[in-house]
Amino acid sequence: MRYGRACFIPGLVAALLGGCASPPTSFYTLSPDASLTRSGTTRPVSMVIGPVTIPDIVDRPQIVTRVDANEVEINEFARWAQSLKGGIARVIAADLGALLNSQQVSVFEGWDDPLTTWRVRLDVVNFESVPGRDVTVDVQWAVRPPGKTRPVLGHSVAHEVISGPGYEPIVAAHDRALASVSRDIAAVVLASGPQ
After folding, report:
1. CA separation for the pair 157, 38 (Å, rounded)
2. For 24-192, CATH number?
3. How far apart are CA 89 and CA 121, in angstroms?
4. N or C end of the chain, less CB within 10 A?
5. Most confident of 15-19, 40-44, 136-140
6. Cβ distance 128 to 66 under 8 Å?
């Protein structure tokens, strides 16, 4: 009888602990907008994206969503695969590369020539997700043309509807919102003409 009880209790504990397993963690990345159309520029634009700043509330691995005016939810099992700052910079660089028809748009400094390279600073004021409703991306940006000391300042606010439940539609809506910001920046570069 004692032997049966000694085997039963550890088996019961193992079964109970197995039932308490956490859900698997999902990782998400922002992606460039594949639908962006290239401009007719014939001369490649050299550009560096950065620095990028984001609000402290979303500067974390977990995806943060808004519950109501004074409450947010930080989901431990829905996470960014890379830093959100890095993801935003990478996507804006890819979107601008497509819009400006250039393969010389990067997030990396070092090989750029200040006399030929555009610089773009991004200050993200709001990066908000409301599940089942929409996302908002509010960015103040500064575009510095090559060889100039004074940047062109701009402000973009993009709202995109979330197309369904779960985190994938939220991330896709942020992709579209960042593409809208990229279009605003590209318009400034194209309006400035060749440098």
Report:
1. 22
2. 3.40.50.10610
3. 9
4. N
5. 136-140
6. yes
